[in-house]
Amino acid sequence: xxxxxxxxxxxxxxxxxxxxxxxxxxxxxxxxxxxxxxxxxxxxxxxxxxxxxxxxxxxxxxxxxxxxxxxxxxxxxxxxxxxxxxxxxxxxxxxxxxxxxxxxxxxxxxxxxxxxxxxxxxxxxxxxxxxxxxxxxxxxxxxxxxxxxxxxxxxxxxxxxxxxxxxxxxxxxxxxxxxxxxxxxxxxxxxxxxxxxxxxxxxxx
Length: 205
Fold this sequence. Notes:
Structural class: mainly beta
Strand content: 25-35%
Number of domains: 1
Oligomer: single chain
Distance between the termini: 66 Å
């Protein structure tokens, strides 16, 4: 008897491990890989060149942009939308109901969560539903996001608070978290950022 293959199967340009379940109706982009024991439900939309690690769940009504990396043991529930280049660390958590009860159905009360392009969600962090994580923001491992996170902000703690700012390449910028007036240049890639009085913006230098 021939043992079952452990190689990912290919279909329409994407691949899934034999133990993964991809329901009919899911839309998956070219170059995407879905690994062991993961489940993608019908109605989920996953972009190109994404990587879903082991034991990942993607619900109906979710969207993942291109080049999204989802590490092991992450569940992406209905109402969650990830833009291009988002990184979800191992065992991080999304929610979609604010006040769940087992005996009360609140499926009509799902709150939307959006994660901006290039953002990083650290291992074991939690993003409470109804909040937005900005572009290239960085959520520290184990943090709990209970309010919107600005673009490029580094947030840490329970609840998560702004602890600094990050370059789009993932290096911390030399800007004070509470009064980030002025500009900063990334020591790694040379990108320049300036505070416009309300938010951090990329600058022409």
